[in-house]
Amino acid sequence: MSAALTRLRRICLALPEAEERETWDTPTFRVRGKIFCMALTEPLAIWVKAPRGSQEVLIAAAPERFFRPPYLGHKGWVGVNLTGRPDWAEVEALVRRSWSLVAPRALAARAGSAEPG
């Protein structure tokens, strides 16, 4: 297991009620059964849910780091390349935002929407 995947697991599983399940031969992170982050291992990347319009902005700003993932890209999800030296603060913020978009509203409200301060 790579150090990057270990770090990603720590970020994802620190969120309220988050759990990991392997699906489609890849780690997925869920809150109450709903996926908020998928980790792809070759090449190492994640897919996260993003607010409307964010996908286009991120890809336009840094196409070497962000991409439109297959299957979920048309729903606004964004792919994040984790090869090289990822910005872990940025990764954590994206994962937390995705969690807050997927988590039930009452849980997100109790958790302070899990948005970074």
Automatic annotation (TrEMBL):
UniProt key word Protease: no
Record keyword DNA-binding present: yes
Pfam families tied to this protein: YjbR (PF04237)
Keyword list, A-Z: DNA-binding
InterPro entries: YjbR-like_sf (IPR038056), YjbR/MT2646/Rv2570-like (IPR058532)
Example of a GO MF term: DNA binding
Gene3D superfamilies attached to this UniProt entry: 3.90.1150.30
Name of the featured protein: MmcQ/YjbR family DNA-binding protein
Organism: Sediminicoccus rosea
